[in-house]
Amino acid sequence: MGIMALWYRSADRIGEKMRFFKMRAEPELAQEKQSQSSEDALLVASLADDIMTREQAMNVPAFAACVNKITEAISTIPFKLYRTDADGRLEEIKDDRRVQLLNEDTGDTLDGVQFKRAIARDYLLGKGGYAYVNRYGSEIKSIHYVQESEISFVYDVDPIFKDYDILVRGSSYKPFEFLKILRNTQDGMCGRSIISENSEVISVTYNSLKYEKNLVKTGGNKKGFIKAANKLRQEAIDALKEAWRRLYQNNTENVVVLNNGLEFQEASNTSVEMQLNENKRTNAEEICKLFGMPTAMVNGSATEQDRADFVQFALNPILKEFECALNRDLLLEKEKGTYFFAADTSELTKGDIEKRYKAYETASRNGFLQIDEIRRKENYPPLGLDFVRLGLQDVLFDPETRQFYTPNTNETGGIGKMNLKGGEESED
Fold it and tell me: Are residues 38 and 54 in contact, defined by beta-carbon separation less than 8 angstroms?
């Protein structure tokens, strides 16, 4: 019995040691990472059908127009830094180094406009927009754009405790050293481009353009066949082929003489040939859908509503990704929750300002919104007038102090101290 007890005790100790070693070993196992390089991605892509490259996709006019309009718009949008105090009041921080880096001088070869344009293009066309954040202590000295094609990863295979390092030409960096703006990411490491998600749609449009190009290049070469009453010798066949080739190579020769009972019979046009223009229009509309872009923004017939839809559906999702990335990667830990970056789209929505202000006027007049609530929506600092309008045009009420204020007489009084007629104090 004593021997068995001793054996169980020893087994328990061994088990404890095994658990200890297992716990010590698990972090080492977690450090085992797989490498994903740009070459690997290209190899995978080359094995798939209808994989489009950035260059091919940008040869599609509608695709290029969408990319250019979106990236140009984003490049001109300033990002501002705000701070909220303990009372919830909003203040714009204008003298912060980070604001200058984002909008003016990045400290790199690119200025703020070029930087945002490059990041936005890689966001749409590659695996994401990346920029090295050059820190000196808690201060950010400069921001350096890095082409997404130069970025590769060494990543942890654990699907829960995900971890990775960023590789740039053999040099390793931690994720917090980079600003990362990713589209449809599932791992926080890299995103998915519009091209990779919609290769077939873009490929159809691209191949349609190639088909049209070949028609133009060959002078509108008609497909068909030549009927002969008798069998032709090979010399006659070769001569006929050469004459036909010269005819459709923009040569000066524009006639082929058919003799010996030869007759040309044109083949019927395909549906693509007969509906080429219609196909182009349909393909352009499909491309615009990929970006959330109103078609009118591409063909030049945009209305005020189209421009508003462009901001809402094409730009805002990207701008939100920018804002989240900036708040995550450029703010100090102690600043998070109090400071935040926000895109200023007021210049793009000028045409909508009148409608918006009329809506604010209606809301204010009917008591739905107060002045400081409206100013907060427009990212303006509050006036400090936390009053509730009572429907009397010249009387305001502070619900915290329960004080009335009459702007036209500059009089203040509490409940029971003012009447509704003229702001006079009552005897009560």
Answer: no
Contact 88, 79 (CB under 8 A): no
178 and 231 share a domain?
A: no
Q: Are 169 and 249 within one domain?
A: no
Domain co-membership, 257 together with 136: no
Q: Which residues contact 313 (CB under 8 A, 6 or more apart)?
A: 292, 293, 294
| Host domain of residue 253 | 224-266
The DSSP output letter for 111 is: B
Distance CA 361, CA 323 (A): 29
User: Is-contact 293 314, C-beta < 8 A?
Assistant: yes
Mention every residue, 6+ apart, whose C-beta is less than 8 A from residue 408: 394
CA 19 vs CA 16, 23, 203, 217, 321: distances in Å: 5, 6, 55, 73, 43
**Mean pLDDT per 10-residue interval, the chain, length 428 residues:** 47 45 39 53 48 92 96 96 85 94 96 98 97 95 97 92 94 96 95 94 89 68 62 72 65 56 58 66 92 92 90 96 97 94 86 72 76 74 60 59 66 56 45
Map residue 154 onto helix, strand or coil: strand
> Is this prediction's pTM over 0.85?
no
